[in-house]
Amino acid sequence: MVSSLHVSPTYLAVLVSLLATVLAAPRPMSSFPLSMNLQRRVPQARSADDIAAWAKMHKQNVEAKYGNPSLMKKRSSGQNLIVNQAADSSFFGSVAVGTPPVAYNVILDTGSADLWLASSSCTDSACQGIPPFNPSSSSTFSASSTPFNITYGSGEAAGTLGTDVVRMAGFAVSNQIFAVCDEVSEDLLNSPVSGLMGLAFQTIASSGAMPFWETLVASGAWTEPLMAFQLTRYNNDSSAEDLEPGGTLTMGAVNTSLYTGDIDYNDIPDNETSFWLQTISAITSQGSSISIPSGSSALAAIDTGTTLIGGPSSAIAKIYANIPGSQAGTGNLEGYYTYPCSTNVKVSMSFGGNSWPISNADFQSEQLNEETCVGAFFEVSTGADAPAWIVGDTFLKNVYSVFRYNPPSVGFAQLSASDIAMNGINAAVPSATVASAVAVTVSATASVASSTGAAIAVASAASATASQKPNNAATLSFVSCSLSVLLPFPVIASMMLYLLV
């Protein structure tokens, strides 16, 4: 005889709490993709001078970044939760490096192609208070004397290249080349971030190494040859914390619960696989179309690692010409525009297909005082080999973005209602964790020069080592008790429950 079981409400509450704690790490699954946590940190209130100084540095960073160029396998997909840092200023996720694996937070950047981590030997102020990579703690790390250097407008990171096992979203790449940096300029890293993961193509890698994602997709490890982002918005939430849930990065598939309708794909012009390039076909400002340069002057890099949107001065001026009361900035705000905060700004962008509106909350980059705000579109001067436009998170928070390897293209889709509901939600912030299992392991054939030569990494033709799960889909799924949808990140137990299934 089977007796009935009575479960008290108190017991259920404890069970939910334990499940949310114990089952937080991704594990192999057969239905949905794995996700990676993105977080966001909200800054303290800043003065107009502080905002202007930040704006100047952001503009310099973008201009430096885009200046002169310095076998049969099981397939799978994975999602990792993201963290939103500094009120939508940046979005980071976690990777695990070494043997045994140690988790690190890294900026997720589709505008560059190198992976680098701050070294335990770094004594610079930027390295204080963050988890550094310690080469001696990994039995699989292989050091080299090949130097590495990457420069931004506000500083640089420098060190040497090495190889090790790198894990993300249920995937692992052995012999992955990355940089271990013992010199990091101030302001390049903000705790708890330890480095940066480049998600653009190998052709622009300063190290010359094939990026982690490209090794996976070129080896056929992904179910679909693409990765996708959903980013959250907290910049208009006065009660937001320093770090907030930031959305979802999906590798090897799209998460159909995060968007609605079709994905509007547009090919990368001339298959130029360097940055994730798109051609801007139209921009509207306050309901009116503006004329924009054509040809190479209309090329834009779709860049998760850039906060705002930069473009040619002539086009930027036309956008603000339609906004009553707007004025060109001066001093540290040179290249930016101010406008009355009371104005409901309506700007949209098209890349050959649909027109995608940018919310007024995202256009309002900063508020200088009660009446004056700084717009998110700014003037930028890029190098001869770089695109004229840099389209960052100001735009990407308004769409579900897909970066497709083959055919090389970028796609956008309308956000789902459940996705939009994640903006500003009071929820638990994801933390850097090491997955309990790896669905697919791919080997990179690494060749690192012993002196000052460039490092080269080529995807190996060796077969992937698959897990024993039937369909080899490493998946972290989040089930909403009330909405019954796949959610992009954990939320407080009183509202919904997330489980590994």
Structure in words:
- The protein is 12% helix and 36% strand.
- The protein is mainly beta and 501 residues long.
- The protein contains 7 helices and 32 strands.
- The model is unreliable at 1-32, 68-73 and 449-501 (pLDDT under 50).
- It has 2 domains: 36-44 and 74-249 and 425-475, Acid Proteases (Cathepsin D, subunit A, domain 1), CATH 2.40.70; 257-417, Beta Barrel (Cathepsin D, subunit A, domain 1).
Strands ordered across the widest β-sheet: 4-5-10-6-9-8
**Helical run tally:** 7
DSSP helix fraction:
10-25%
Q: State the end-to-end distance.
A: 30 Å
What CATH first level of the largest domain would be assigned?
Mainly Beta
Number of domains: 2
DSSP summary, beta strand count: 32
Query: What's the overall geometry?
Result: globular
List its salient traits:
501 residues; mainly beta; Cathepsin D, subunit A, domain 1; 6-stranded mixed beta barrel; 5-stranded mixed beta sheet; 12% helix; disordered C terminus; Aspartic_peptidase_AS; signal; disulfide bond; protease
Provide a compact summary of the structure:
Helix content is 12%, strand content 36%.
Produce the secondary structure layout.
Layout: H1 9-22, E1 27-29, E2 35-40, H2 48-65, E3 78-85, E4 90-97, E5 102-109, E6 115-118, E7 142-152, E8 155-168, E9 171-184, E10 193-198, H3 212-218, E11 226-231, E12 243-251, E13 259-267, E14 277-279, E15 282-285, E16 288-290, E17 299-302, E18 309-311, H4 313-321, E19 327-328, E20 337-340, E21 347-350, E22 355-358, H5 360-363, E23 364-367, E24 372-375, E25 377-379, E26 389-391, H6 393-396, E27 400-404, E28 409-415, H7 417-420, E29 440-447, E30 456-459, E31 465-466, E32 473-475
Parallel strand pairs: 5-10, 6-9, 9-29, 17-26, 18-25
Antiparallel strand pairs: 1-32, 2-12, 3-4, 3-12, 4-5, 4-8, 6-10, 7-8, 8-9, 11-12, 11-27, 13-28, 14-17, 15-16, 15-21, 18-26, 19-20, 20-24, 21-22, 23-24, 27-28, 29-30, 29-31
Protein name: Acid protease
Active site: 109, 303
Disulfide bonds: 122-127
